[in-house]
Amino acid sequence: MVALLDRPDQTRALRENPRHIPGAVEELLRCGPPLEVIPARFTTGESEPDGRSIGPAETVTVALTSAGRDAPVEAGADPDRLDVLRGNVRHTSFGHGIPHCIGAPPARLEAAVALRAPLSRLPDAERADAGVPVARPPAGITRGPVRLPARSTSWARVHLRAHNARGRHLVPSPASVPSQPYRRGQTAATTSAPAVANV
């Protein structure tokens, strides 16, 4: 959601082309995987990436955020640019080979549902703190936002919070949302109601 709220053109493209949501999930995983690194992988033989020699049985850390930018994209395309309509996206966010994540299919489905809900229910959603760097957990493995204030005239100001290491986002219970719609431009108070999964 951070990537989409920071790029209204991409949000608009996805809202106008909802059939691309599954592909957008792959592109979002390529550009901003939920895990920063995969620690403690061991080499099975000698290799020489970028001219640096790594011997057999050495411990390496895989930086998924960098690996996604190195993934092949169409000729002439910019790998550093998020493009939710990009086709045939490849990434290593779920691992590769034997250690490929067994939970990848349900995670992809959950992410697609989690994208579809705010795109359809909050058509004018925007970050309430635009321009402020997103707070992330201190150096570690996960990289989801600690807090993501958003604003919409469809709902009161809501706080999307990272629920756990899987990155499930939460929104306030529908019962906590005021029954009267907010007028455009009106600032709504932050709700303190308990959060529930609403996807």
From TrEMBL:
> Would you say which domain of life the source belongs to?
Bacteria
Q: PROSITE patterns, per this entry?
A: CYTOCHROME_P450
Q: Which SUPFAM superfamilies match?
A: Cytochrome P450
> Region entry Disordered: which residue ranges?
169-199
Q: Which InterPro entries match?
A: Cyt_P450_CS, Cyt_P450_sf
Query: Which family would the database say this protein is a member of?
Result: Belongs to the cytochrome P450 family.
- Its protein name is Cytochrome P450
Q: Which organism is it from?
A: Streptomyces glaucus
